[in-house]
C-alpha cells in the first residue's frame, strides 16, 4: 500500500488509560494513523477528546452507531476499528462493526460471557473480516522465543507450568471511592462473571497456552473476594491440567499489596525449562539438565533467536525497555516548548526539560578533557568551564 | 495549536538504527508528524526511504540543502528538523538549518569538536531558535526522580559518584568487516577525537551531571584502544572531581564482552544514596543511614514522586518496560495482515501472529470454568473445548 | 555449665550428606562436641567414619542399640543423640533413645507415617526428655523476622500465602543408577507415603505455618510421579486453606530441571506483604500499601530487627552468606598443610591453596603505593615489585 | 594424624567480631580444636573469654608472651597460633610466635607497614614455619572457579578489571562515639597509613590479583577522608595497570551509606568475561562473545567445575549460603535449652525457638492429607488437627 491504514476508535476518551496505549501502539511503526472516533458515550467528551488528538470535528462522532454509519460511506473511510470500551459493551460494538463491514481490533476480554464469545466467533467467520484481540503479553519478543523453544522440543515433553499474575491495586475497597476502573471492574453488570479471573487470569491462561502450544483441559479453582462487600472475585488459585499431559498452577490476584503487574511464567520439561517475567521482559532465563543456566536477551546476536522473536524486536540488545518512551519524553517536551513558542506563550519548566545546546558544549568539553588527560601521560586535567548542565538553556 | 507539529529529518534512511528510534519517539504522543526528509546522501536511497514512510515524493529531498531551501518556502513547511546523521556532519547541517530559520533537534555528540560546539552555541543564541540534543537517558522517569531527590537534599551533601557505561559490541575488529556503525565510529575523520568517550562516555558524564545537578571540574583518564589496529579508543577509565566537592569514577567501554547497554549510576551523600541502571529503568534503589533500603518504581502512587517523574510517565506501575512496543507488535501484525488482505495478498505466518477471535472464545471458556469450579465446592471442572489457541485463526 | 555438651550420632557415616551438616552445625558455636556414634549399619563403616572424626574407637559403636546401652552407663556419657538416618528408621531409633533416657535431635520427616508420629509425641511427653526436629529453614534470621512481623500485625489480616519448593535433581530416573539418596527416597518401603511431599513439601508447609503463625486446615492436591516407573511422587501442586482465613498455594517439585533448592514464600496481608527465598536468605523483601518497597537485611542496624532475628545472627550485615564457610576453607587448607608438614608429607597444591606471607607483603605494597599516589598530587605510582600473588608461598 | 590440630589464639576476646569468626571457621571441618589463648591484653577479660569457650583456666594466658613461653614446653602444646588482634600488633606477635617455633595464621593486613611486612617475610622464610593470612574472600568456591577459568584462557587475554568494595559503616564520625572498631581503624597509630585502603582496599586488590593471576604494576589514586576531622581515609578511587597488560579500576569506600560488604569484581577478556559479588557468592556470571550468558553455581554438577572449586564446597547446589549457620541456630537453641534443663533452669523463649515433636506430627499429618487428597480424585481434604506449630512444645 502507498498510504497508512486509517483507524477508527470506539472508547478511549480523556482519562482512559488503555485507549491511549492502543493509540501509541497503533502509531509506533508508522503503518496506522488515527482517522476517526467515537471516544465516549458522552458526545461532548467525545468531541473534546477528538480535538486533543487533532482530528477534524467531522470525523469525531457521538456514538459508535454514528461512527459506523457515516464512515462506511466516506471515500476515505476508516480501514478498521479499535474497540477499547468496558467489557460489557464489546459484543454489541464488535457485532455492529462487522455488520457495517469493518475489521475489528478488540480489547480483551472479548465479550461478557462465553455464549457471546461463540456468537461473535461465528459472525467473524461468516463475515470474513479480520479480527484481532489484544492479548498484548504475547507481543514480547522473549515470549515468542519461549514459544519457539517449546515448539522445537528443546526441553522435551513439558511436565509442569507455573503461571502467576499478582497485582495489588484492589487491596482496598477502591471501588467505593468512585475510581472509574475499580468501579466497573468489580461490577457484575459491567465486568461479567469475574473481576480478577476475567481481567488478568485470562492473560495468564493465554500466556501459558501460547508458550506451551497446548490447551488447558481442566481446572480446580479457589476463587475469593477478600475485600469486604466486594461483589466479584479479587483473587484466584487454580490447579491446571493441560492437553499435553502437563500439570500446572495458575494464581492471579488483585490483593497482593504493592505487586504491580507481576505476570510471570515457568515451564519445565524433561531436559530443561524456562522462566520469563513481564516486568523484566527482555530476559528469558533457561535451565538445563546438562549445562549452565543461560539467559537469552532480546536483540542478542550471539545466538540464533527465532524468526518470530527477531521480527518483534525494534532495537539492539540492551535498549528496549522503555527506551523509546524515554526518548519520546525529549521529543514531547521539545514539541511542547516549540508549540508554546509558535503560539507566543511561555513554556513551563516541565516542558523545557530536555537537553539543549549547552549540554552539547559540555559534552564536547568532556571528551576533549578526557582525551587530553590520557594523552598527557594520564594526568589530571581541568574541564573547560562551559556553563551549567541545566536543561534546554537557549 | 490545532494541528500536529511537522517534522523534517536529515539522515535516518533504510537500515539506520537511530533514525527509526527518533521517528518512533517523535510520533509516540501524537504531537508530531513526519512531513519531509533528506534521508540519505544517496538520493535514490532517500527516495526509497521516503516511500517506506508513506511520504509524498515531493517532500523527499536529495540532500539537506535542498530540504531547507524548498521547505522554507512551502505554506505547510516543516516546523523543525531532526538531525540523525553521523557525528562529523552535525555541525554543518545544524548551522544550515538555523540559517534557514528551522529549529533543530540533534543527535549527540552535538559536533565534531569543542570549537564547533561553541560556534553552534553562539549561533543558536543569536538565532533565537529552539535547539534540542538527544541525551535520551535523561528522559527516564526515575532519572528525573533521582535528580529531584538530590536537588531536595534528601541525601545531604553528595560525596561519591560512580557512573559506568559498559558495552561489548566492539570487542572484535568489527570495523574491518564493513559494519556501518563500527566503521564510522572508529574513524577519526568521521567520529572525532574519540570513539568510546564520544559515543557513550558523554552519556555517562551527562547523566552524572544531570542527576547531581553539579558539573565535572577535572578528570584523570586512562583511555585505551584494546583491539589491535583500532584508531580510536574503545575503553576509558576516568577519575572525576565535581564542582560540589564530590569525587567520582567514570568508566565506559566497548570491549566488555556481551555487555549490552549497561549504563548505570550510584550517588552517595552524607545520609543516603541512590542506584539506577538503564537496563532496569523503572526502579530507583535508595539507600539510607537510618531506615531500610527502598525501591521507588515508575508510576507508583504510594509515595509522592516528583512532578518531573510523573510528567515523564505514560503508564501505571509495572507496565512501562517495553509494554507499548509489545502492544505495538500486535497492531503491526494486524495492520500488515489487513494491508495484505486489502491488496489481495496472502499474509505471512509472521504477519498473522496476533490473537484473534478464537483466543477470545478460549478466554471466556477459561473464565467460565474457573468460576464454575470455585462455585461448585472447588471441584475439578473441564474447560469447554473451543479450538486451539493458535494465532488469528479467522 | 562449665563444659561443652556431648553429642552422640546415629547415622551420618562416610558419604552421607546430612550427617556432616549436622556435625558442622552442632559444632559451630562451641557449645557441643561430638563424643560418640553409630555412624552406619555396617560396623566397619561405622568404625572408619569414627576414625575420620578423631573419635576414640571405644566410643564408635556397631549399631544404635549398642550406642544407647553402653553410653548410658559411662560417667562421661553423651548428653543427647542426633538421628540422621533414612526416614523409615527414625521412629525405632528415637523410641529406643528415649527409653534409654537420651534427649533427641531428629532429622525430618520425624517418622514414617502419622501414626508413628503420634506415638512418638506421646512418648516424648511421658519421658520429659528434650526433642528437637531439624526443620532447618526456620533457623534463618530473616525467617524469624518475617514471623515477628506477621505476629505484630504489621501487614494486617493475612489473606494469601504462596510457598514454593522447586528442585530438579530427580528429573531423570536417578534411582535406577544406584545413587543412594535417590534410591531410598523413591522407595515406598524406606521413604514412606511420599517422596516429594515428604522430603520437601513438609519444609514448605512448616515454613508457611512458622511465618504465618497459623495452621493449614485443608488441602486440595494434585500429586504426580512424572518420571516413568517411579513409585513415589516427584511433584505436587496443592491449594491451601489456613485456620486464620488465608488462602494459599503450595507447590513442590523434584523435576523442575536445574532448580537447586528454591524454597521461597510470599505472604500478603491487608496492608502489606513479604517475600523471602532461601537461596538469598539474608534479604527480606517487604511490600507496603502506603510506602516504597523495603528490603530488610540480616544484621542491619538501621532498624529495630526483632530479638529473634538478632539472636540468630552471628555476623555484621553483608557477611553472612557462606562467609564462615569461605573463611573455613583457608583454615582447612592451612590445617591440612600443617598436618602434612607435621607428618613429614608433602601437601598437595589444593591443600596449599591459602594466602601466605607473600600475599601480606603485596598487600602492604599496595597500600603504600595508593597512599603515595594520592599524596603526590594523585599521580601514577609504581607498586614495588614483591613477588607473585601465588598461594602460601613459604 | 589421629587427632585434631590444637590451635592457640591471640586476641578475639569477648565482643571481638573477627576472633569469633576465626574460631567458627577453624572448627567447621573438625580438623582443629581451640586449646589455648591470650584473648585480651586485659588478663581478667582474657580469663573470662576462656571460660566462655570452655577452656581450662591453665591454658588461658595473660598475654601472648606468656602464651608462647608456657605452651612451648607442654607435651600437648598448641600446634599453631591464630593472631586476631588490631593491625599494629600483628608484627610483634607474629615475630614472637615464630621465634617460639609456632606456625602462624594471621589476620590481614599482615603488618603496620611495608617494611615490617618484608622483615616478617624474611623471618618466615628462615624459620621454615607455616604462615597463613586470612584474605578470606579467596576462599569462596566461585572465586576459585573464576581463577581457574582465567588461568585456562577461557576468556582470552584479559583486558579490563573492575573491582569494587563499597561499605557504609563509617559514613558518620562513628569513632567519636567510642565504637571500638571505628576507633582503632581510623587511628593512624593503630591502623597504619590508611583506614579504607588498608582495611578493604587490600581485599579488593588481593581478589583482583588472585582471579587474574597477574599483579598490579602501577596505580593512580584519589584517596579521601570525607568525614570531617577523620585522620585516615574513608574512600579511595584508583586507576590500575596490571602486569599482563590489563587496565582497571578499583574503588573502595566506607562512606557509601548502607552498603554492607559489597565486594565484587568484573573481569573482561577478548572472548568473554566474568562477574562475581561477595553478597551472592554462589553464582559466577559468565559473558561470552558467541553464546548466551551463563551462570555457574557452587555445587552444580551439570558442568565440570574446577577441582579447586569443588574442593572448597561442602554442600550440594542451592544449600550453601548461610545454610550451615541456619542449621546451627537450631542446634544452638537445642543445646542451650538442654543445658538449662541439665542445670535445673528455665530456658528463655529465645532458647526454645526450635522445632519439636509437635512439628513432626504436623509434618506427617500434612503429608498424609496431601496424598489422600490426590489419591481421592484430587478432592479437598482436611488436615487432622494436631496442635499448633509452635516451637519446641515438649
Describe the structure.
- Four copies of one chain form a homotetramer.
- With 394 residues, the first copy, chain A, is α/β, with parallel strands linked by helices.
- Chain A folds into two domains: 5-134, NAD(P)-binding Rossmann-like Domain (Rossmann fold); 137-311, Dihydrodipicolinate Reductase, domain 2 (2-Layer Sandwich), CATH 3.30.360.
- Chain A contains twelve helices and 14 strands.
- The first copy, chain A, has helices at 17-27, 43-52, 64-71, 90-99, 114-127, 141-151, 180-185, 188-191, 196-212, 307-311, 323-342, 357-375; strands at 5-10, 32-38, 80-83, 104-106, 131-133, 158-166, 216-224, 235-242, 247-253, 264-269, 272-277, 283-288, 293-297, 380-382.
- In chain A, the strands form two sheets. Chain A has an eight-stranded mixed sheet with strand order 7-8-9-6-10-11-12-13, covered by helices on one side. In chain A, strands 2-1-3-4-5 form a five-stranded parallel sheet, sandwiched between helices.
- In chain A, α1 links the parallel β1 (5-10) and β2 (32-38).
- In chain A, α4 runs parallel beside α5.
- Chain A is globular and about 75 Å long.
- Chain A starts with a strand and ends in a 12-residue tail after the last strand.
- Residues 388-394 of chain A have low confidence and may be disordered.
- β13 of chain A pairs antiparallel with β13 of chain D.
Question: What distinguishing features does this structure have?
Answer:
homotetramer; alpha/beta; Rossmann fold; 2 domains; five-stranded parallel β-sheet; 21% strand; 394 residues; 14 strands; disordered C terminus; Dihydrodipicolinate Reductase, domain 2; 34% helix
Amino acid at each position: 500500500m502507498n498510504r497508512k491504514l486509517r483507524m477508527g476508535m470506539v472508547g478511549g476518551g480523556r482519562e482512559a488509560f488503555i485507549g491511549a496505549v492502543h493509540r501509541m501502539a497503533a502509531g509506533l511503526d508508522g503503518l496506522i494513523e488515527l482517522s476517526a472516533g467515537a471516544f465516549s458515550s458522552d458526545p461532548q467528551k467525545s468531541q473534546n477528546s477528538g480535538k486533543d488528538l487533532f482530528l477534524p470535528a467531522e470525523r469525531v462522532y457521538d456514538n459508535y452507531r454514528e461512527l459506523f454509519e457515516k464512515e462506511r460511506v466516506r471515500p476515505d473511510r476508516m480501514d478498521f476499528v479499535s474497540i477499547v470500551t468496558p467489557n460489557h459493551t464489546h459484543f454489541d460494538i464488535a457485532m455492529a462493526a462487522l455488520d457495517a463491514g469493518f475489521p475489528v481490533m478488540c480489547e480483551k476480554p472479548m465479550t461478557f460471557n462465553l455464549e457471546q464469545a461463540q456468537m461473535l466467533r461465528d459472525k467473524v467467520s461468516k463475515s470474513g473480516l479480520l479480527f484481532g484481540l489484544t492479548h498484548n503479553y504475547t507481543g514480547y519478543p522473549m515470549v515468542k522465543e519461549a514459544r519457539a523453544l517449546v515448539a522445537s522440543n528443546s526441553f522435551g515433553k513439558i511436565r509442569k507450568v507455573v503461571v502467576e499474575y499478582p497485582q495489588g491495586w484492589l487491596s482496598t475497597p477502591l471501588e467505593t471511592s468512585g475510581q472509574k476502573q475499580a468501579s466497573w471492574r468489580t461490577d457484575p453488570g459491567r465486568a461479567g462473571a469475574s473481576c480478577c479471573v476475567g481481567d488478568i487470569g485470562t492473560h495468564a491462561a493465554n500466556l501459558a497456552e501460547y508458550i506451551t502450544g497446548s490447551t488447558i483441559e481442566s481446572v480446580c479453582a479457589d476463587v475469593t473476594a477478600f475485600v469486604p462487600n466486594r461483589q466479584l472475585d479479587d483473587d484466584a488459585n487454580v490447579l491446571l491440567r493441560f492437553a499435553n499431559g502437563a500439570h500446572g498452577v495458575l494464581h492471579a490476584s488483585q490483593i497482593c499489596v504493592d505487586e504491580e503487574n507481576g505476570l510471570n511464567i515457568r515451564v519445565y520439561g524433561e531436559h530443561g525449562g524456562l522462566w520469563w517475567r513481564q516486568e523484566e521482559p527482555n530476559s528469558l532465563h533457561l535451565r538445563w539438565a546438562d549445562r549452565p543456566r543461560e539467559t537469552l536477551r532480546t536483540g542478542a546476536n550471539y545466538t540464533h533467536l527465532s524468526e518470530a522473536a527477531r521480527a518483534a524486536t525494534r532495537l539492539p540488545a540492551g535498549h528496549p525497555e522503555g527506551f523509546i518512551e524515554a526518548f519520546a519524553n525529549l521529543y514531547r517536551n521539545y514539541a511542547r516548548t516549540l508549540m508554546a513558542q509558535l503560539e507566543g506563550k511561555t513554556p513551563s519548566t516541565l516542558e523545557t526539560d530536555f537537553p539543549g545546546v549547552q549540554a552539547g558544549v559540555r559534552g564536547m568539553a568532556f571528551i576533549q578533557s578526557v582525551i587530553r588527560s590520557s594523552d598527557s601521560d594520564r594526568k589530571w586535567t581541568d574541564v573547560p568551564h562551559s556553563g551549567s548542565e541545566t536543561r534546554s538553556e537557549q
